[in-house]
Design a protein that fits this description.
The structure is a single chain. This protein is α/β, with parallel strands linked by helices. The chain has a single domain, classed as Rossmann fold, CATH 3.40.50. 22% of the residues lie in helices and 32% in strands. The protein has 3 helices and 8 strands; from the N terminus they run E-H-E-H-E-E-E-H-E-E-E. The strands form 2 sheets. Strands 4-3-2-5-6-7 form a 6-stranded mixed β-sheet, sandwiched between helices. A two-stranded parallel sheet has the order 1-8. Strand 3 and strand 4 form a beta hairpin. Helix 1 packs across helix 2. The protein is globular. The chain starts with a strand and ends in a 19-residue tail after the last strand. The structure holds 1-O-pyrophosphono-5-O-phosphono-alpha-D-ribofuranose, guanine and magnesium ion (MG). The site of magnesium ion has 4 residues, from loops. Guanine binds next to strand 8. It catalyses: IMP + diphosphate = hypoxanthine + 5-phospho-alpha-D-ribose 1-diphosphate; GMP + diphosphate = guanine + 5-phospho-alpha-D-ribose 1-diphosphate; XMP + diphosphate = xanthine + 5-phospho-alpha-D-ribose 1-diphosphate. GO terms for molecular function: guanine phosphoribosyltransferase activity; hypoxanthine phosphoribosyltransferase activity; magnesium ion binding; xanthine phosphoribosyltransferase activity. It is an enzyme of class 2 (transferase). InterPro entries: PRTase-like, PRTase_dom, Xanthine_Guanine_PRibTrfase.
Amino acid sequence: MATNYATVTWDQLHRDARTLASALMARGEFKGIVAVTRGGLIPAAIIARELDCRLVESISVISYSGESAQDQKEPRVVKAPIAAGDGEGFLVIDDLVDSGETAKVVRDVLPKAHFACLYAKPNGKPHTDQYVMEVAQDTWVLFPWDTAPLFVPPLARNLGA
Ligand SMILES: O=P(O)(O)OC[C@H]1O[C@H](OP(=O)(O)OP(=O)(O)O)[C@H](O)[C@@H]1O
Ligand SMILES: Nc1nc2[nH]cnc2c(=O)[nH]1
Ligand SMILES: [Mg+2]
C-alpha cells in the first residue's frame, strides 16, 4: 500500500510534459508517437504538439484495477499500435513507470521505440529511456484526472472534536 500521495496539478503536468518535449528535441524527429493508454494520452498530446508530430498511435494496456500498488494485475495489451510497426523511429509516451511491468510489455511489442515518461519510481527506472522526475516507490501519484477540488473544513472547526 502506498504510504504517501503526490498530487500533480494540470499546470505542473503541462510544465513537466513540455520539459520532456524539450529534452526529446535533441533526439531529432520522430516518425510518430505511441501513447500508452490511458495515462499516456494527455502527456502524448502535449508532446505531439510541442514536437509538431501529427502521427499519433496508441497501445492500450490494462495493468491496474484500482488506486494502489495492491491493485496491480498482469498487464494486458487490448489494442496493438499497428501504425508503429516494431517501433523504429517512434516515441512511446506514458505518464509514469512504477514497477516497470507495463513498460516491459510495451517494449516487447515495440522493441525499437524510444520510451519516455513524466515520472519514474525506482523499480521502473531501468525500463524507461527517459523521464522528467523521480518519485519514491511508496508514493502514489495522483494525476489531475484522478482528483477534484473539495471543501476542507477550517482547522478551528475541528477543535474539541
Ligand atoms: O510500471 P507499472 O507498475 O506497470 O505502472 C505504470 C502504469 O500504470 C498506470 O496505468 P494503468 O494500468 O493504471 O492504466 P491507465 O493508464 O489506463 O490508468 C500508468 O498509467 C502506467 O501505464
Ligand atoms: N495514478 C497512478 N497510477 C499508477 N499506476 C502505477 N503506479 C501509479 C501511481 O503512482 N499513480
Ligand atoms: Mg497506464
